[in-house]
Amino acid sequence: KQEVTQIPAALSVPEGENLVLNCSFTDSAIYNLQWFRQDPGKGLTSLLLIQSSQREQTSGRLNASLDKSSGRSTLYIAASQPGDSATYLCAVPIDTGRRALTFGSGTRLQVQP
Amino acid sequence: DVKVTQSSRYLVKRTGEKVFLECVQDMDHENMFWYRQDPGLGLRLIYFSYDVKMKEKGDIPEGYSVSREKKERFSLILESASTNQTSMYLCASSFPDLYGYTFGSGTRLTVV
Predict the structure, then answer these.
(1) A15-74 residues touching B, CB cutoff 8 A
(2) Which among B92, B21, B95 has a CA at the least distance from the CA of B51?
(3) CB contact, 8 Å: B39 with chain A?
(4) Residue B4's beta-bridge partner residues?
(5) Is the pLDDT reported for residue A27 higher than 90?
(6) How far is A15 from chain B (nearest CA, A)?
(7) Is A96 exposed, middle or buried (0-12, 13-18, 19+ CB in 10 A)?
(8) pLDDT at residue A60 is higher than 90
C-alpha cells in the first residue's frame, strides 16, 4: 500500500527566505504527483502536477521536482511571503490500478513578516 | 473557471440523523471522491466513483454510503450520524489518471 511522508511537519521562516518542503512515497510506480495548498478551514488548492515522465514543474515562485527512483519530491518556494503561510500537502495515486490519491500529512508553513 | 461546489460550509446534526452531503462539479469529470480530514489523521478516502452509478470503497467506508445518479453530482450519506463522524468533509473530482484533482471548499460537519 502506498504511503506518503512529509518532512518537516511544521516550518517557520522569516519573509524572503527560500525554502524546501520534502515528500517521500513508498511505491515508485506512480502516474503523477501533485502538490496542494490548504488554508485553515478551507479546501485544497492544486499548485503543481508532475507527470511520471517529468522531472520538475514550475509555477511562479514555486518549483516542484520528482525523483521516482528514490521515491522523493521536493517543493521549492523562492522568496517566501507571509501570504505563503498555509499547509502544503503532496499526494500520489493509491496504486497503479486506481485513481484515488493518498496524501501526506502535510507541512504547516508560517512565514513571519 | 472550473468548480467543485459543496452545498454546505457548516452543518450541525444530531446523533442518529440521516445526513446528506452534496457535491457538484461542472467540469464533466469522470472521477469523483469523498475524503474526510481530521487533525493528526490527515485526509482519508471514504468512497470514490469512476462513472455514473459506479462506486468503490476507500479506506474508511464504514457508516457511510454514496450515490451518483448523474455525472456531475456525488452525494455522501451518513445513514445514522454519530459523534465520531464530526469532521471536515472534502469532495474532489478529476479526469482519469493524468490530470490533477479539483477540490471543493469543504463541509465542516458537527454531530451533537
Answers:
(1) 31-32, 34, 36, 41-46, 49, 51
(2) B95
(3) no
(4) B25
(5) no
(6) 27
(7) exposed
(8) yes
- Positions of chain B with pLDDT lower than 70, given as ranges: 1-2, 97-99
Contact (CB, 8 A) for B77 and B20: yes
Residue A25 has pLDDT above 70, yes or no: yes
CB contact under 8 A, A49 and B100: yes
Option in B90, B97, B108 nearest A44 (CB): B90
Q: What's the farthest any 2 CA atoms get from each other in chain A? A: 45
Using the CB atoms, write b or e for B19-50: b if 16+ within 10 Å: bebbbbbeeebbbbbbbbbeeeebbbbbbbbe
Predicted pLDDT at B1: 66
Measure in Å the smallest separation between the Cα of B38 and chain A Cα atoms. Answer: 10
pLDDT over threshold 60, residue A71: yes
Q: How far is A48 from chain B (nearest CA, A)?
A: 9
Residue of A nearest to B9 (CA): A42
The confidence score (pLDDT) of residue A82 equals: 97
Taking alpha carbons only, the member of A77, A100, A105 closest to residue A90 is A105
Report CA B24 to chain centroid distance, whole Å. Answer: 10
